[in-house]
Design goal:
The complex is a heterodimer of chains A (about 300) and B (about 650). By secondary structure, chain A is α+β, with helices and mostly antiparallel strands. Chain A is built from six helices and 18 strands. In chain A, helix 1 packs antiparallel against helix 2 and helix 5 packs antiparallel against helix 6. In chain B, the strands form seven sheets. Chain B has a five-stranded antiparallel β-sheet, with no helix packed on it. Classes of the chains: A alpha+beta (about 300), B alpha+beta (about 650). Chains A and B meet through helix 1 and helix 2 of A and helix 5, helix 6, helix 7 and helix 16 of B.
């Protein structure tokens, strides 16, 4: 197994080779031909059988060469939210004067096959489904080839030390925790802005105009439609606001949604979760920092 | 209801390769298989091609099964009556099954199977012919079949690339194959009974003789056998190759006596007088038991015996080219003579050849000495106007009397038969022997070649003091009455001395020597030859473990050689091509006095150049930026631009 700092070069010791299924069938054919040649004392039968045996043996070298000396480097991977496929990029460098044919890159059930022309540097993308937040490692990629005659299967394992962050899924019912901790009084007032930004639970004194009557008619809780531009406001997103949710993952998902909403509204937002406090700020970098904290929370 | 499979695999071009290979490999078989199979084979292939081209569904398995059943029954009917279900019948079936298999092929696995079958079909061709042209043709088929295998695995290659790759694979395989061919332990087959028509019918000497019944002697140039002598060749008039002994005649036909042939004789009652002649015969297959030997052989080779007729018989029919070594003596006293011999050697058909008998009895009365009667008969053939011709008139009434007293023309069979009848009529035991006379030496490899046209018949008479003595009455004919044999060239009769003939003879001799070498060294290579070769290499008594070790180590070293050739080259190729071009450019700069310091990077070097040679600044900057892009940013597509720029850079 290769596990090195990139780039990985496939060398002789890390390429394995065995007969393929077709190769085993071929061997059986050869065995029958050999017995036939012996039985009939047929010299040309021997010649043909031995020529095919030799051709198969020689093809091992050719199949081996298809993989030998390939350089593999990991490309950048963008973080994703749980459920989205993480797209890992591999840069493959063929520095030989010969085309590499019929390479298949396999990761779990994903198979990507390609040819790499002489002196070419190509990129392949391996989409990997994500099921859990946190740091996600690509893990083992198998590359194999049966070129040229398909009688032998040469393969190598590539363990690139490459990973990406998987953020929690951005879902939740709660609205942004405006109010008590809002510095600019009035701006965060529910129902004051023009943009619909989400729902919050009904509190005594809320204007009946903002009650989501349709939801009430469906027998759900009384929810208040929130409107407002938050561009100048500052929001603290705290663990306390989501502690009512049934589990940690739901809480993290809610926080994730809030971060995205706050960022899209251009608000100043800070994050306060156990073990970590990020002062209110705005911008993509700040957002990614917050999301990273959520992804790696444990 | 069945599920219809769409013919997605193999792709159209892979399929075309399979079809082309199948046609090539089956083509030579068309002469062996029953006439309706080739058209059906083509039709099935065309059907498969149309399905692939129009992306239709494959026919259902039931239809294919029905076709297969009909074909099996038809083959049983076609072959059942005539020659029996044998090799040709199985071959015909295999050919059709290959095409049917292709008609249900929709996966790579099935396509590969058809490809392997086509390799198998190559080997079936060698059961019919192993000549050099066949081998060369099969080499082409191998190239195609391997190209097919490549096509099925990788379809982005061009036709030329596929054939080239296939050629490389096979070319590299040849040395490994030679090692296997020479050293792989050989065993003598067959392990099981071969089909009844396993061996093609071949021409050879018949076992009966009917002088007068045929008006044309075979002029076949086919080779009967080749002989390699250890020492000097026996003189031409001693090259009698003994074949079959004929005893019994009904007045028209002469036959052998099987009861005499069957028994092996231990005591040959054979005394030799002259020197021995040692030689090795390579006999072409003739499907009969007899082996030809120079008159007379002393001992039978392995798996053969000498019978009471001094004839060598093999224990099994000669179905493959066979090689055997013999020792013969041309001067001998052969005195094996039993009462049965005497009875048979005096047998005459009842109420036939009356004039011949009268003549012989007349000679006997003139001089009862057997030697004198033989001389008298030979004199008769010499002095009366007897002629030798290969195209005599038919003799249907009484062949002997008509020949002796009316037509007086004929070939060896007429003379041998008439002479034997004359001897028997004079109470001298006599028999007819057939075989070959002469042979020509090929100046290229010094083998003596005996052809079918050199078949001959002569007589043997029994003298109480000397035993059996060979008398060739044909040799007694006056020389001027022997029809000149003309050489034929492509079926046209030409003058013997023309230049074109000598060139033709030379070509023929060379081709024959090549064929003989092929037969001796390639086709004749078996357990015995392998043993001899190993002994010559100083490896006598090597056991199978030693052989395996030798085999494996030889093949491994070959493969290591290939690996070194294939894999070590990339190491110097690993020096980046861009770097190579850069170094070349640095040399160009050095030529006009600007040397790069070993520690100087490309950018600083370029800056230094642009200071000293501002005229070059622009082109240098271009080259350096291309270099940096290819070398450090892996933009290999810029490589050719860099190459171009450096090539056209003239400081």
């Amino acid at each position: 197994m290769i596990s090195k700092i990139t780039p990985i070069i496939l060398d002789r010791r890390h390429i394995y080779i065995l007969p393929s299924k077709a190769g085993l069938g071929f061997m059986l054919t050869l065995l029958i031909m050999l017995i036939g040649s012996m039985n009939y004392n047929n010299s040309m039968g021997y010649v043909l059988t031995f020529l095919l045996v030799s051709m198969a043996i020689v093809s091992i070298l050719h199949t081996h060469r298809t993989l030998l000396g390939l350089r593999i480097e990991a490309g950048k991977v963008s973080p994703v939210f749980v459920g989205e496929p993480a797209e890992f990029h591999l840069w493959i460098d063929n520095r030989e004067k010969a085309t590499r044919y019929n390479l298949v890159w396999q990761h779990d059930k994903t198979k990507i096959s390609n040819n790499i022309a002489a002196n070419q540097h190509v990129n392949i993308t391996i989409p990997v489904p994500t099921l859990q937040r946190g740091r996600f490692f690509l893990g083992r990629v198998t590359v194999y080839s049966r070129f040229p005659v398909g009688l032998f299967h040469a393969w190598s394992y590539i363990n690139l030390d490459v990973s990406t962050l998987v953020y929690p899924q951005a879902i939740g019912h709660k609205n942004l925790p405006l109010g008590q901790e809002t510095d600019h009084a009035g701006a965060g007032n529910s129902g004051e802005g023009e943009d619909f930004i989400g729902y919050r639970d009904y509190q005594l004194g809320d204007s009946p105009r903002h009650i989501d009557w349709k939801a009430v008619a469906r027998g759900q809780n009384w929810m208040i439609k929130q409107f407002g531009g938050l561009n100048t406001s500052t929001v603290w997103l705290t663990w306390k606001d989501v502690s009512s949710l049934q589990n940690v993952e739901a809480a993290l998902s809610q926080l994730c949604l809030w971060i995205l909403v706050a960022e899209s509204q251009g608000a100043q937002y800070g994050l306060k979760i156990p073990g970590c406090t990020l002062e209110p700020n705005t911008g993509e970098q700040h957002r990614d920092m917050c999301l990273q904290k959520l992804a790696l929370y444990h | 209801m069945h599920i219809k499979t769409h013919a997605l695999l193999p792709r159209l071009d892979g399929l075309l390769w399979i079809i082309a290979t199948l046609i090539l490999v089956v083509l030579p078989h068309f002469s062996h298989i029953v006439i309706w199979i080739p058209p059906l084979f083509f039709l099935l292939l065309l059907w498969r091609y149309q399905i692939a081209r129009h992306q239709k569904s494959l026919p259902s398995r039931w239809i294919l099964l029905m076709i297969a059943l009909v074909v099996i029954v038809s083959i049983a009917i076609s072959y059942g009556g005539r020659s029996g279900i044998g090799r040709n019948a199985y071959l015909g079936l295999l050919v059709i099954l290959c095409a049917l298999k292709l008609l249900e092929t929709s996966t790579l696995r099935d396509a590969l199977l058809v490809c392997f079958l086509s390799y198998f079909l190559i080997i079936t061709n060698f059961l019919y012919s192993q000549s050099i042209p066949t081998a060369l043709y099969m080499g082409v088929v191998m190239l195609m079949a391997t190209g097919t295998l490549i096509s099925l695995n990788e379809n982005s290659l061009s036709t030329r690339q596929r054939l080239r790759l296939s050629g490389i694979l096979l070319f590299q395989a040849v040395p490994v194959m030679l090692v296997l061919f020479i050293l792989f332990p050989r065993v003598a087959g067959p392990f099981w009974k071969l089909p009844i028509d396993a061996h093609v019918s071949v021409s050879g000497l018949g076992d009966t003789m009917s002088p007068g019944a045929f008006s044309d002697l075979s002029l076949s140039d086919e080779i009967a056998f080749r002989v390699k002598f250890e020492g000097a060749l026996p003189p031409e008039n001693q090259r009698y190759w003994r074949g079959i002994v004929l005893w019994h005649t009904d007045g028209h036909e002469w036959k052998r006596v099987k009861s005499l042939e069957k028994h092996e004789v231990k005591d040959l009652k054979f005394q030799t007088t002259g020197d021995a002649v040692d030689y090795t015969v390579t006999l072409e297959a003739h499907n009969r038991h007899w082996l030809f030997a120079l008159d007379l052989p002393l001992k039978a080779p392995h798996k053969a015996y000498i019978n009471r007729d001094y004839q060598i018989l093999s224990k099994s029919p000669i179905v493959d080219r066979m090689r055997y070594s013999l020792r013969s003596y041309t001067d001998y006293h052969a005195k094996l003579f039993t009462p049965q011999h005497k009875y048979l050697a005096l047998q005459l058909p009842k109420d036939k050849h009356l004039r011949a008998r009268a003549l012989a009895q007349q000679w006997q009365q003139e001089n009862p000495q057997p030697q004198a009667i033989v001389q008298r008969a030979l004199q008769y053939f010499n002095q009366e106007p007897f002629t030798y011709t290969r195209t005599p008139r038919l003799l249907l009434d009484d062949p002997i009397d008509d020949f002796l007293f009316k037509t007086r023309e004929g070939f060896c069979e007429h003379y041998a038969a008439a002479f034997t009848i004359l001897m028997r009529s004079a109470n001298i035991p006599a028999r007819v022997v057939t075989g070959y006379l002469g042979g020509t030496v090929n100046p290229i490899d010094h083998y003596l070649i005996v052809r079918q046209r050199e078949a001959h018949a002569w007589s043997e008479v029994w003298f109480a003091d000397r035993g059996w003595v060979r008398i060739d009455p044909t040799a007694a004919i006056a020389a001027e009455r022997i029809e000149k044999e003309s050489t034929t060239l492509f079926g046209f009769k030409t003058q013997q001395d023309s230049h074109i003939i000598s060139v033709w003879q030379h070509i023929r001799n060379t081709w024959d020597a090549i064929n003989n070498g092929w037969n001796q060294w390639v086709l004749g290579y078996g357990p015995e030859q392998q043993k001899k070769l190993l002994e010559r290499l100083g490896l006598e008594g090597i056991d199978w473990r030693g052989m395996t070790l030798l085999l494996v180590s030889l093949i491994s070293s070959l493969l290591l050689g290939y690996a070194a050739w294939m894999f070590l080259r990339p190491q110097w190729k690993h020096t980046d091509p861009a770097q190579k071009i850069y170094r070349h450019w640095c040399k160009k700069m050095a030529r006009c006095g600007l040397h790069r310091h070993p520690s100087e990077g490309p950018i600083t070097f370029a800056q230094r150049i642009s200071v000293t040679r501002p005229d070059l600044a622009e082109s240098v900057e271009h080259i350096i930026s291309l270099y940096l892009q290819t070398r450090y940013h892996s933009q290999f597509n810029r490589l050719s631009q860099l190459q171009f720029a450096v090539r056209h850079f003239h400081p």
